[in-house]
Design a protein that fits this description.
The structure is a single chain. By secondary structure, this protein is an alpha+beta fold. The termini are far apart. It is built from 7 helices and 9 strands. Strands 2-1-3-4-5 form a 5-stranded mixed β-sheet.
Length: 199
Amino acid sequence: MNTSKYPGLDDLVNFHGHLCPGLAIGYRATMAALEHLDVERARDEELVAIVENDSCSVDAVQFLAGATFGKGNFFFRDWGKQVFTLGRRGQPRAVRVSLKWDATETRPEQEAIAKKMKSGKASQAEQDQAAGWRREKIDYILNAPEGDLFEIKEVEIELPPKARIIRSVRCGRCGEPVMETRTFNQDETTLCTQCRQNG
């Protein structure tokens, strides 16, 4: 597939490692959010991204929007939804992009072959057919009208605060440095989360 007509997609594929339907969803969602906000990729922490899944699509948000855990402008909510919210710090307006229910329907015959592939029982012809369907799905996601794929709406949210530098302290059990805000006091000993859970 010729990806050169999609700005930034080649670099995104190199970052992620492959082109798949999930990455295509993230690409279209992020590009839509940036366009609706009328902003470009974050240079620092000014743009905030909140994602509600941990699939391939999220790599597109990080790469294209410039949002990362390290900069403190990328937030993960483990809700299992293809939903992406982008906003600028200092502005109450944000854009929420959610994948529509029927945007990427999978037909029963596709599900049947997918099950066979997972169990290693798919024939070569079935594997080829699945690869063809995958290419078709990617092509559809990249080229479908935005409104066929996503529900896009402006929302007012309180964006998470900027990242803070937190001092590290030593865990009284394992001896490793740990952020002070992630410690627990147990029997007058400072413990990291892992040591606390391990008893």
